[in-house]
Every structure is written in structure tokens, then in C-alpha cells.
Amino acid sequence: MSEESLLSDDFIRQLVSVGEVDLLVGIPSRNDSKTIGNVVRAAEEALLRNFRRQRTVLVNIDEGSRDGTQEAVRQASSLSTNGYESLRTSRWITTTTRSAGGDSAALRTILAAADLLHAKASAVVSGSTATVTPDWINALLRPVFCENYDFVAPLYARHRYDGLLTRNLLYPFSRAIFGKPIRELRATEFCFSARLASECLNSADWNSDGIRSAAETWMAITAMTGPFACCQTFLGPKPRPAAVGVVDVIRDALTGFFWCLESKEQYWIHGRDAEPVRTIGADHQMTDEPVRIDRKKFFRLYRTGVAELSEILGSILDAETHAELVRLAALDETAFRFSNALWVRTIYEFAAAYHHSVINRSHVVQALIPIYRGRVHSFLTVHRSDDSEAMEADLEDLCQEFLRQRDSFIERWNTKR
Amino acid sequence: MTLPVQSEWYKDAIIYQLHVRTFFDSNSDGIGDFRGLQQKLDYLQELGITAVWLLPFYPSPLRDDGYDIANYCAVHKSYGTLDDFKSFLAAAHERGIRVIIEMVLNHTSDQHPWFQEARSSRDNPKRNWYVWSDTDELYREARIIFLDTELSNWAWDPVSKSYYWHRFFSHQPDLNFDNPEVREAMWDVMKFWLELGVDGFRLDAVPYLVERDGTSCENLPETHEIVREYRRRLDESFPGRMLLAEANQWPADVCAYFGQGDEFHMAFHFPLMPRMFMAVKLEDRKPIIEILQRTPEIPPHCQWCIFLRNHDELTLEMVTDAERDYMYDEYARDKTMRINLGIRRRLAPLMDNDRRRIELLNGMLMSLPGTPVIYYGDEIGMGDNVYLGDRNGVRTPMQWDGHWNAGFSNADPELLYAPIISNPVYGYQAVNVDSQTRSPHSLLSWTKQLLRVRKSAPVFSRGSIEFLDPPNHRVLAYVREYGNDRVLAVNNLSSTSQAVELNLRKYKGAIPIEMSGKTIFPRVGELPYLLTLGPYQFYWFRLRRI
To answer: Which residues contact B81 (CB under 8 A, 6 or more apart)?
Structure first.
């Protein structure tokens, strides 16, 4: 019986026609008809302006759009690119992912294209990122193509209250464990080398369910934990994410990250020294336009969660940690503060509980969500009037706290309760 | 002996370009001559070419490789005598080889008696045969062509104390074609050679014949009028003879030189040449398709002349700035290789001596629309010497064998007009006619076979062209059609193997027969026709309906 292929015959036919390339820009899309036109034009202009002599291809991997996204791609790619002329034929590939791959299928398909076309540098840019400019694409591709980096992570100018999961958990946790200060672990824009593409594509991890919700995170961590040169590059303002589906996003992010910890355990389990990662451009920028946030709701959800999930939390956390969370939940909202030390201890205990499957793993992750909301409430309160420098200083404190408690976490990870 | 009048022979021709000086030295003075060339006609006949185009062989101070003519109706003494020329011409015609000679209309040498007279006094009857001015202000919009050497198109004549006009080197004063005496004198020159039996002229520097203030002084209507007049006289008195235009211009401008079929029979397609090199380096058919699609239709009795390399630099005048930069970086990274707006290198070194790429380019040359020109020595993959100055590096002696002076001359090596190429890769011991004649797989043997196949199908010389548009842009595919004859040419421009699906539905039912080995391929059906090609491989298929 023939093995089912990730790649359709039509896609392979298109790859055959394109042949070897120097640069690839992959654009995953799903119902992005309003934004993808700009992304496509930005990518084309970036390639024509900055890489006129290179062999290039744009690859749109559509994940079943029903809003005319693919038509928008076709229209955008036929428009002029501000007078920039290519020496070569402009090449486009479009395909739709097959359902078997789940959420990771788009990235895997781009990796396959990059590998089969021998692309020296491949940038991934989300079709939903409305603020993409040609400079973004250039900034992503150039370190890999010109400076032999294997992985380029993005840095964005974010609103002070955006990216809170990254700021409070993913970045400081991964930095402490993997030793490399890459901020945007779960990025929708990044770039990779042929070497990294090949390593990732041939990984057995694709057989795991864990990768389904964390392919980008997994790839970043693969770069951080392998013999790959990593850097970060500043792109520009990242649009504020849509408020819908936040719980799903958080759940997927946490699930994916915890799974990555397991899959890369051999790398960090004996402790890693910190290694610097080059940053190109600004290392952080913050926007500050006023937004309405219902902080009370976060606290309410925390308090409810701690009460309703008491039994589950009891099986996940040490008694002392659990008691502290319960004590905090009893405080008046104005007095509520979730300290860095407690937050780090809580997260580490959740991660270990996930690893040991003390209860159903999805329940572990689900139980963390109200706790995370409590942390967010505290973050918003503490930093209500802080400037970006103060927020950065606090972030650094948090990172150090993750590092300080790392050894006990590793011990906990290694010892099933 | 003249060959019988044969209409449109130039369309079926395969032209071999050479300089008498470079080919074979019969009298051991270190310089090739007509007697030597005559001795090598059997070689040319066996190669399969049908016409020879001779670079200027007239008396000349040779400050521009003979394009500075001092006497239009004689042979430079280094190359022999007029009788030697006549003997050579007869011998060529006996072998069915036509002879095209160079005619430089636009200018003479400053050593030409006409110019010597003209500069002698302002009242001399020949004064008005050249273009004079008391200032250097006129025609300021005309570009300078030889940017590396000339600062102005005007040169000061200290003898007659005025400026004379020159579009090329300052020792090449332009003739004044507004003067009817000049026009008549140049027709007399042409008539002289036509009466001897030459089959055609390659007219040098045609766009610059006439000057008008406020214009670029190129391609002016008055210039076309002069060409039309010469063509009328040619057809009247010498039917079957041919005029070939050298006009390094965009196709739309060159097309004007075909007129309504009443100016030139043929013209060089200059912009195509660099784009063939570019396409191979880019591994992309775009440059070739774009320029050919921008090439207007030409009158039915006219023909493009196409080439890969010639005696000049690989000119990059007819490309964009970005394309020129690319070509320089890819083909002439060493600045010594650059001259004017071009690259002074031969075909084989340009292709890094890669036999597959040399074959591919020759394959395209022989299958794209137009009459192909082969530059002497390229059929054996001769190298160049960029250190010889000007464009002399691509004008070194022909390499006949591995012996004394490459078999070119018995003279002492120091006497040779130019040193023989002697490096280990392209030197005469490694690259020569003798050794390649002995090998059935040499470039020379391959070229002979290619020319045989080309000549077996008039569709190559006279057919229409339709480009196919396969998704694989590394493959250049087209169908040539002439009457019921159809040939499919498929070229892999890439250094790697390629698969290509061709939409041949229009030719459904045809059986492709590969023309070199006469191998039958599967019949064309409804589905895209799948072909695989090795690196730089090309196929010519005759599409037969049986």
C-alpha cells in the first residue's frame, strides 16, 4: 500500500517546474483575503528590490480558506511591484494543505518545498499579518542568506499589553531552560536555512500529536537546541491579535511548549549555560495607545478557577504552592499581587505535572489558564503606569527568577511524585 | 566564377566569420593571407558552412583592425594581392561557399587620400567629402561610442585648423553622405567588388551615415534614403547579391533598416546575443523570450542574422543597467575583460570551457530564427588573451595543430601578428583542428554534425517560431514551422537535470523524431508531453505525421 504523501501531485508538479531556488517566501493563509494581498506584494517587492539576481519563489499554503484568499493572492501577484523588474521569471506556487497534517501541515509543506527546492533561505510570513512590509522580508532573509544564520526570529513593536503569554511565560521559561534569549518563540514570521529545514523536515517529531499545535515553537526550539546559528531581527509593529479564541490560543501555546520541553529534554536536562543571541535592530519597542481591559474579569476568573479546580490543582501543585494560590484568591482585588517567585514556581510545577501526566495532560493545561489570568491581572496592575524601561527591568527580574528556580525544576522533572 | 543567382540564399546560409590575417599564413611572414585562406577552404567546406564573411582586408594603417580603410579598391599587402583575392573567391565559389566582405561606409582612415586632400585646404574639392566645423558645438546630442578612448565626436585638425566629425576613433573621420559625390564614390567602390563576384556586403556602422543637429545622429531618415538608393542599384545591376546591416540598436530601430524589403536583406540581431548568455547564467528563458517577443515582424524577403561571438566585444549596449551589471559580474568579474560597454572574450572562456554550455548555446544559435554566424575558432573552442589590448585578444591566430605556431605559420613566433594562445587549457597543443578532426566526439565533430542537421531542415532557416510556455522556466521550448515541416526545439538552460511538461496538444498524433540520432519518441497525445533533459541538454524533434 502506498504511503500517503503530505504533498499533492499538483504541488510536486509545481515544484518540478520551479526547480532549485536561492530564496523562498512561504505564506500560510487561512481566510486572510483582507490582508494577504499586502503580504504578497510586500514579498514580491522585497525579492525584486533586494534579491534581484537570486532565484526566488513565493509559496502560498492555504489552509482551506473560504473567503477568496487564493483569489486575492492571484490578484495581488499580478499587480505591478513599484517598477522593480526581475531578471528572471517570477515564480509562484499555490497549494492547499491536506487535512492529515492538522495545524502543522502548512509549515511542514513549506519545509518540504524549501528542502526539495534547495532554498538557501526561507522566510515564513503569515498571510494575516497586515503590517508586513518589504523591509520585513528583507530583514528576515538577509541574515540567513548573507550571513549564514540558520534561524532568524522576529522582534516586534508590540502594544504594552500584547504578547503577555510570551512575556510572562514562554520567553523567560525558554531562556532559562534552553539558554538562548529568543523572545518570540511562537512567531508567525521567521526565517530558516536549508540545513535547519532539512533537520526539521526529517524529524520523527512530526509523528507526535504534540507538534500539531506548536510547529513554529518547535522549530524555534529545534534551532535553539541544535547546532544552528540563531539571531533575532527587529521587524516593526505587529498588529494587535483578534480577541476571539484567546483560550484556544493559550491552550495550544502551553500544550505545545510543554510538549517541546519533553521532546528536547536531552538538551536541557543537565542544565545549559546562557548563550547570547545577536539582535539586529531594536531589541524591544512598545506602543502605548489606550486600550480598554477588564482587569476585574481576569481576577474574577482566577478566583473562580482556583475555587472550582481545587482538586485538580491539588494534584498538580505542591501543597504550599496551592495554598498560596488559594490565599491570594481570597484577597481583595486591589491587594492582589502574583509575585514573580510564586508565578515561576507555579509554572514549573505545572510543567513537571504535564511531563509526569499526573492527570490527563489536557486537564493540566486547562487548569493553568485561570492561574495565568491571575498573573495577567497582577501584571496589568503592577505595570499600569510603568514605562517600557521599567517593564523591561521587571521582565529581566522574571527571567532571573526562572533561572534561579531552574535546578529545582529539573529535579522535579526527573522525580515523579 | 560567380555562383548562380539564387533568391534568398542568405536565409539558408551558415556564415563563418574570419579575418584573413588570423586564418593561415602561406608565405611565412607571420600574417594570414588570401593564399593561406584559400588553402583552408576544404576545411570550411567540410565544417559545413555555406558563406564566409571576411573582416576588412583593405590597405589600412590598422589602427582599428582594418576598419580604418585607406584604399577601398585594393588588398592590404600583408594579405596578398587583388589577384590573390580573385583566386580565393573563385575557389570558394567552386565549393559552393559564398563570400561576404566588409564595407565601411561611414568613415575612412585619416590616411585615406580623400581625407588627406580634404584637410589640405579649405578650398580643396574633396573638402566637402568629410564633415567639418569651426566649432565642436554641433551635434551635441550624439553619444560617444568609444567611451574608453574618445572624449568628443569632434577632433581638431591642425592642418586645416578646423574640427572634423568622427563617430568612432578620432583617426576615422566620417564621410559626408550629404555630398552626392561621396554617395556616388561609395557606390563605385561597392560596384568594384560586386563585379569581381562578391556575394554580399556587411555594411559597417550604418546608423551613423548622416548627421543632423538636434538629433542623436543615428537612424535618420536621410540615412535610410541612402541605403534604399544603394539597394535599388544593387538589385538592378547585381540581382541575388546581399546587404547585411551592422546596426547595434534595439530591434524596432533595426527593423527600419529592412524598410519595406527595400533596404537591407539582413541585419544583426544585437540584443538577442547577450540575452542568450544571460539566460544560460540565470537559468531562465525570460531574457530570450522577452527580446524575441519585442522583435517586430520583418518583411518576407528579409532575415535576421544571429551570432554568439564575433570580432568585437560581447556588446552590452542593448541591455538595461541592471542586466549589464549582472553580465559584468557573471562573465567579466576581472575588469581586464571589459572594454567599452562590453566583454572582450570568446565563447569557450565565457562558458568556462563547459562543453555542455557551448553546445547548448550553439544549439540555440542554430535553431532560433535567423541566419547563424560562427566566429572562427569557436567551432573548436578556442580561448582568448585579454591582455593583448583592445579586442585583439579574440583575434589571435587560428589553431590548426599542435606543432610550430599551431600550424598557422612557419614564421618565427616573434614575427606573428599576435601571439598564439598557449595556456594549458586553451593553448594550441590542447585545442586545435587536427586533434579534433581525429576525434569523432570533439567539439569540432559535434559542430559539423549540428550543421548537417541544421541544413537538413529548411524550417530552421525559414520557418516561423512559436514559443511554448511550460511551467518550468528553465526550459526554453519552441516549435519552428515551415510548410508542413515542424521542428520542436527544447533547451534546458539549467546546470541540473530538468523535467518539463509541454503542451503539444496542437500537434496531437505527431511522432517526435529526435533529429540527431533519428530516434523515435512516443506519439504526442492529449496529455502534457513529459520530457526529461540532462544539464544544458537540448533536443530537436521533427514532428512527423505518419
So the answer is: B34, B75
